[in-house]
Design brief:
5 strands, single chain, alpha+beta, 5-stranded mixed β-sheet, YaeB-like fold
């Protein structure tokens, strides 16, 4: 099982997503956050399940899609996954100040 860590950026992203969605529906915000967390939990067992981020072309920089969000992670080794950022699919990843967290 891979160890999963979160970058400060990813924690901030998740918090911002929850805050924004809570403005219109606290229940929906909770559901989306829970689904994102469930997706991240799966990475612990299946770290290579995500695809390589197309616009970056870095083999160990991968992503899973949860709802309308891209959960971007870096696969350091077979036993370590770092969640780098969580972006709405309408926002380009290249706008991220530091894609490696």
């Amino acid at each position: 099982m891979a160890q999963t860590t979160w970058s400060v950026q990813a924690i901030d992203d998740l918090s911002s997503i929850e805050a924004y969605l809570s403005l219109s529906s606290p229940r929906y915000a909770e559901l989306v956050v829970d689904e994102i967390l469930a997706g991240v939990e799966l990475l612990g067992n299946f770290p290579e399940m995500g695809r390589v981020v197309p616009e970056m072309g870095v083999p160990n920089l991968r992503e899973i899609i949860v709802k309308n969000y891209r959960v971007v992670y870096y696969l350091n080794f077979q036993d370590e996954v770092e969640i780098v950022t969580i972006r709405h699919s309408s926002r380009p990843l290249k706008d991220t100040s530091n894609p490696f967290g």
